[in-house]
Write a structure and sequence with these properties.
Strand 16, helix 10 and strand 17 form a beta-alpha-beta unit. The protein contains 20 helices and 23 strands. The radius of gyration is 41 Å and the shape is elongated. The strands form six sheets. A six-stranded antiparallel sheet has the order 18-21-22-23-20-19, with no helix packed on it. The chain has a five-stranded mixed sheet with strand order 11-10-7-16-17, with helices on both faces. Strands 1-2-3-4 form a four-stranded antiparallel sheet, with no helix packed on it. Helix 1 packs across helix 4, helix 2 packs across helix 4 and helix 5 packs across helix 6.
Length: about 725
C-alpha cells in the first residue's frame, strides 16, 4: 500500500554535501540549514520527496538523482557512514547539525569548539575507527579470509575522505570500485541530460557537425549560463554517454538528416500496387560531359521517373543545368511510351539506343510489328542478345519534391489533363521520395563505369577527373549509356526492395515484378498517338492577326491560319477569339495548334526561320532583349551610339567569366535544341507513316533490320523486303 510523502518544516533532506534541515516553506521552494550552518533556498523543481528508508533519507535533492538511487544499498550505506565520520570531524555532529545531535555529542576533540587542529582530530578519528572495526565480527572474518589486509583504518585514509567530501560532497565518498559496471547513463545528472538533449537536437543536417570535445564544451557553457554549477559528471560515464550520442546521430550531416527524418517518417509504406504510381526527381550527374562543337566540359542533370511498386525505371533524360518544368513533362512523355533496345551480334556485339516502339495497336519503329491488343512484353529472360523493352505506364499518381519545376502551373495543368494525382513531399523531407533517392545511389554504378567521374563529395574526389586516353562522353552518349545500364543491368538484376510474403528469400528483378502485377491491374498501356508529345507542350493563348500569330516578338504563319481565321469567336475559349497554341522553348522556329474539328496537330513556322542557321532558342532571344534594355530601348539609336554600344558589348564578351557563361548557355541551348529535333521528328515520322500506311501494321525503316534480326523476328522478315534498304529517317531534315 503506497502513501504520499510531503516536504514539511523540520524534515531532514539529503543534499549533495550532506543532510540539511528544512527551516520553512516558501512560495517557490524551501529554506534549509546546511551542515556548515548557512541558510539556503532550494527550488521545488530541485527536490524529490521520499519516505524514510534503510538509509534514513526523507527527501533527496535532484542533483543526486537518479545516480544515488541507482547505487546498491550496501554502497549507499558505506558512503553515508563515511559522511558521518567526516561531519563529526569537522562539526562535532555525525549528522552535521546541532538540531540532529545524538546523545553525548559533541565528543572531544571533534568540532571547532575544542580548539583542536584538524590533523589531531583526523588522527583521533582513525584510532577510534580502528577500535570499532576490531570488535566487528564480520570485518574480522573478512580479515581472516584474506579479503582485507588489516582491520585498522589509517590516518591517511580518513584524510582522503575529508578532502573528497570538501571537493565533491557526498559523491566523493562513494567507492568507485564498487560502482563500475552497474551504472547506466541515467546515473548522470538530469540537468546535464536535459541540456545535452538540447545541444544534440541542433544536429539535424542543417548545421555542420562538431567533434565530441566541442559538444561537451557547449553543454558545460550552457549549464553555466543557466546557473547550474553543482552538477557532478563522472568522467568515464560522461565520455561513454557523449560517444554513444555521437554514434547515434551519425558521422556526417547526411546521417544527421536521416536521424531527424526518422522522427516524422511513416510506419507503413505507400500503398502503391498499380505500376502507374510514379516518383520523379532530378539529380546532378556526378561526372562531366563534353560539348563536341566547342570542346567545353560541363555538368548536366538527370531526370528519372520510377514506378514505385515495380522499381522499373520508366523514363530517364539527361538535360542541361538546370532542369525545367517542361523537361520534367517530357520525362513523363517518355514514361507513357514503350521503348525498345536491340542487342545483336555474335563476335561483335551491337547495342542500339532506346527507340519508341510506337503505337501498340498499329505503329512499330523497328520492323517488328505490334498488333492490336498485344502490347510489347518486357524481356524478363536472362538472355543478353535480343530485344529489351522498357514498358510504358499510365500515370496514376506522381510523387515529387517541392522543387519549382514540379510545382509549376504548366506541369500541374498537364497532370490534371491526364487525371494524375500530384503528391508533393513534405518540406525538408526527402525521405518521402525515398525510392528515387535510392535509385540515385544505384546510378553511381553507371557513373563509375565511364570517364569523367568526379565523386559525389569532396572526400571522393581525386586530383584529376579527365584522363588523356579516356575522352569524355557527350550528353547524348551519356544518355545512351544510362539507357543501356537500365535495360541490361538494372532491370535484369535482383532488387532488394522487391519481397513477397512467403517468398522472402526469392530474388526478383524489376521487370519480373512488373509482370507479376499485370494480371492484377490489367492492360496499363496508354493509347499511343503519333502526336502524343504535343499533349505535353505548354499552351499559350494567342490571337491571329493579318500577318499571322505573334508571340514574344516573333511572327508565325501557316496555311492552317486561313481556316482558323474563319472560326467564330469563342470556339476555343468562351468570351474571346484567342486560340491555344503549343510552344516549345527549346526551339523557337515553330508553334503548333490542334485543329478543333480534325484533332490533328498543325505546325506554324516563324516567317524568318529560313534566315537563321543556328538554333533560335530562348537563350538567344533573352540575350538580345538584355542588350535592348541596357541601351535604353529602340528609340535611342544613332550611328555613334551603336558604335559605342558594340565596343562596350564586345569588350564585355571578351572577359573570361562572361565568355564562359555565354558558352555554357549556348552549349545547354544546343543540347536542348537537338533533343527537340529528335522529339518532334519522331512525332512527324509517326504521323506520315500513319497517313501512308495501307496495312493494319505499320513499320518504320531502321538500320536494325538485318537478316539476323529477321531470323529472330520472322514476322518482320517479309515487310523488310518491301521497305528495301531505306535508312533511318534524318530527324534534322524532317524539321
Amino acid at each position: 500500500m503506497s502513501h504520499e510523502v510531503f516536504i514539511a518544516k523540520g524534515m531532514r533532506l539529503l543534499m549533495p554535501n550532506g543532510p540539511v534541515l528544512v527551516l520553512g516553506i516558501e512560495r517557490y521552494g524551501i529554506r534549509v540549514k546546511t551542515v556548515v550552518g548557512e541558510e539556503e533556498e532550494v527550488r521545488w523543481d530541485q527536490l524529490e520527496a521520499r519516505g524514510t528508508d534503510e538509509t534514513g533519507v526523507q527527501g533527496v535533492h535532484l542533483a543526486l538523482e537518479p545516480w544515488w538511487s541507482g547505487l546498491p544499498t550496501a554502497v549507499r550505506l558505506e558512503a553515508l557512514a563515511r559522511l558521518e565520520v567526516v561531519l563529526e570531524i569537522l562539526t562535532g555532529y555525525r549528522d552535521g547539525l546541532p538540531d540532529f545531535a545524538r546523545p553525548g555529542e559533541p565528543f572531544h576533540p571533534f568540532g571547532d569548539g575544542y580548539g583542536v587542529s584538524l590533523t589531531v582530530r583526523i588522527r583521533r578519528m582513525a584510532r577510534q575507527l580502528s577500535v570499532e572495526r576490531g570488535t566487528d565480527r564480520i570485518i574480522m572474518r573478512r580479515v581472516q579470509a584474506g579479503e582485507l589486509i588489516s582491520e585498522s583504518v589509517s590516518e591517511s585514509t580518513v584524510r582522503l575522505w575529508v578532502k573528497a567530501w570538501q571537493r565533491e560532497g557526498l559523491r566523493g565518498l562513494v567507492d568507485g570500485r564498487k560502482t563500475k559496471g552497474v551504472q547506466g547513463f541515467d546515473a548522470l545528472d538530469p540537468r546535464f541530460l536535459r541540456v545535452a538533449d538540447e545541444i544534440f537536437s541542433r544536429y539535424d543536417g542543417d548545421v555542420s557537425l562538431d567533434n565530441q570535445k566541442e559538444v561537451e564544451r557547449q553543454i558545460r557553457v550552457q549549464l553555466k549560463l543557466q546557473g547550474i554549477t553543482d552538477v557532478h559528471l563522472p568522467q568515464r560515464l560522461l565520455q561513454e554517454y557523449l560517444s554513444a550520442r555521437m554514434r547515434a546521430i551519425g558521422n556526417t550531416t547526411r546521417q544527421n538528416r536521416g536521424k531527424e527524418l526518422r522522427k516524422s517518417s511513416g510506419r507503413r509504406s505507400y500503398p502503391a500496387i498499380h505500376p502507374g504510381h510514379l516518383a520523379v526527381d532530378v539529380t546532378r550527374w556526378d561526372g562531366f560531359v563534353i560539348d563536341p562543337l566547342t570542346g567545353r566540359v560541363y555538368s548536366v542533370e538527370v531526370i528519372t521517373v520510377i514506378s514505385v511498386p515495380t522499381r522499373v525505371i520508366v523514363a530517364l533524360r539527361v538535360v542541361p543545368r538546370s532542369a525545367t518544368s517542361f523537361e520534367a513533362s517530357l520525362s513523363l512523355y517518355d514514361a507513357m511510351r514503350p521503348m525498345s533496345m536491340l542487342v545483336t551480334g555474335d563476335d561483335e556485339v551491337t547495342i542500339d539506343s532506346f527507340r519508341w516502339c510506337g503505337l501498340p495497336v498499329s505503329l512499330d519503329f523497328d520492323g517488328r510489328p505490334l498488333y492490336a491488343h498485344r502490347p510489347p512484353k518486357p524481356n524478363t529472360g536472362r538472355a543478353i542478345r535480343g530485344e529489351h523493352i522498357k514498358p510504358a505506364v499510365c500515370m496514376m499518381s506522381l510523387r515529387a519534391d517541392n522543387g519549382g519545376i514540379f510545382l509549376s502551373a504548366d506541369l500541374r495543368a498537364l497532370l490534371t489533363d491526364f487525371g494524375t494525382d500530384l503528391l508533393p513531399s513534405r518540406g525538408s523531407r526527402p525521405i518521402d521520395n525515398s525510392h528515387v533517392e535510392r535509385w540515385h545511389e544505384s546510378l553511381q554504378r553507371a557513373c563509375q563505369q565511364i570517364p569523367g567521374f568526379k565523386g559525389r563529395r569532396v572526400t571522393e574526389r581525386g586530383r584529376t577527373v579527365m584522363i588523356a586516353d579516356k575522352p569524355l562522353l557527350t550528353a547524348q552518349e551519356l544518355e545512351e549509356h544510362l539507357h543501356r545500364f537500365i535495360a541490361l543491368d538494372y532491370h535484369r538484376s535482383p532488387h532488394d526492395g522487391i519481397r513477397l510474403p512467403g517468398m522472402e528469400a526469392g530474388h526478383f528483378t524489376p521487370l519480373e515484378r512488373f509482370d507479376m502485377l499485370l494480371p492484377a491491374v490489367g492492360n496499363i498501356v496508354v493509347p499511343q498517338r503519333p502526336d502524343l508529345i504535343y499533349q505535353f507542350l505548354p499552351k499559350r493563348w494567342l490571337k491571329i492577326g493579318h500577318a499571322g500569330v505573334e508571340y514574344r516578338g516573333l511572327t508565325y504563319d501557316g496555311e492552317i491560319l486561313d481556316e482558323l481565321r474563319q472560326l467564330r469567336p469563342g470556339t476555343f475559349r468562351a468570351g474571346d477569339d484567342r486560340m491555344p497554341f503549343l510552344y516549345d522553348h527549346r526551339q523557337r522556329q515553330h508553334l503548333w495548334i490542334r485543329h478543333p474539328f480534325t484533332d490533328r496537330v498543325q505546325q506554324l513556322e516563324w516567317r524568318e526561320s529560313h534566315l537563321v542557321h543556328a538554333p533560335l532558342t530562348d537563350v538567344v532571344i533573352d540575350e538580345a532583349r538584355r542588350l535592348l534594355r541596357e541601351r535604353g530601348g529602340n528609340n535611342v539609336l544613332s550611328k555613334r551610339k551603336v558604335m559605342l554600344e558594340l565596343i562596350d558589348e564586345l569588350t564585355q564578351l571578351t572577359a573570361a567569366s562572361d565568355m564562359d557563361e555565354w558558352r555554357a548557355k549556348l552549349t545547354a541551348a544546343r543540347l536542348r535544341h537537338e533533343k527537340a529535333l529528335v522529339d518532334h521528328a519522331e512525332a512527324a515520322a509517326a504521323t506520315r507513316a500513319l497517313e501512308e500506311s495501307r496495312h493494319g501494321v505499320l513499320r518504320f525503316p531502321s538500320p536494325r533490320l538485318s537478316n539476323a534480326h529477321s531470323d529472330h523476328h520472322p514476322e518482320a522478315a517479309e515487310p523488310a523486303q518491301e521497305t528495301g534498304e531505306e535508312s533511318w529517317p534524318n530527324y534534322r531534315e524532317m524539321v
